[in-house]
Design brief:
Blueprint: E1 6-9, E2 16-19, H1 29-42, E3 44-47, H2 54-61, E4 83-87, E5 112-119, E6 127-131, H3 132-137, H4 141-147, E7 151-155, H5 157-160, E8 184-188, E9 190-192, E10 199-201, E11 208-211, H6 216-230, E12 236-239, E13 246-250, E14 254-258, E15 267-274, E16 285-286
The chain binds succinic acid.
The site of succinic acid has 11 residues, from strand 5, strand 14 and strand 15.
Length: 287
Amino acid sequence: MTVKLGIRRLAGALGAEITGVDLSAELPAETIAEIRAAFVEHQVIFFRDQSLSPERQAAFGARFGPLNIHPYVAGMAGQPEVMEIVKEPAEKLNFGGGWHSDMSFLPAPSIGSILYAVETPEWGGDTLFASQAAAFEALSPGLQATLQTLNAAHTAAGEYAPGRHSARPRQSMRIAEAEGAVGEAVHPVVKVHPESGRRALYVNPAFTVRIEGWSRRESKALLDFLFEHSRQEAFTCRFAWRPGSAAFWDNRSVWHYALNDYPGQRRHMRRVTVDPQPSAGAQRRVA
Ligand code: SIN
């Protein structure tokens, strides 16, 4: 027997809180289909008061597609598809502290990420989300048309190339610096969502470095404009975590930003990242 989910919108552009489901259970296919429909429609969905072991989080994530093993961030021992995102009280930097879309540097980037809060600070540590579908729809028809003819190069070099983290040590997360991180993946600047049919901007400040065929200077001018445009308040929602909260966001149309405003406190999250089904969405790889 299936239970109809409760769905409460959180903001104008994206985000909804879902009630009436225990994510740790073996959910029937109908409930998974309802969750997937809410995820596609609202772009990021939130759950409260869950109790997810790493195994159950991975099992839930695997209902939506194959789980990614991050090429540069070590997963849990024995459970490499589950990444622990920890900031200790003495640490200054946080993981994900800038607008980005997970794994856009891969030829076939992730469709979604599921983040679960194990331990949260007493205050602060919220995550912001921004709808890149709403950002695209707010542009003029002329610019929309031009952007749809462009491709952009994405790379993990800025985050994971050799030398990057020696200057910015992270004690609690094992982040590898890899020669391979300097490779680039090329994606359309505007992607049509394969499930909703909605168009969304697909460039982000963390990983997008260039418009294909344009000089660095030309690319910077357009990308700076798009980055500024895309983070407008009207396109965002904000989630305040509590232990047991979970979020499932659509990396195909959403940016996110982990706020670093809780000095001296500990924050402990776990993430699984869902890949597209093999063969779907493969993109050309360069370099
Ligand atoms: C991430 O970028 O995946 C982390 C987001 C967060 O910790 O809020």
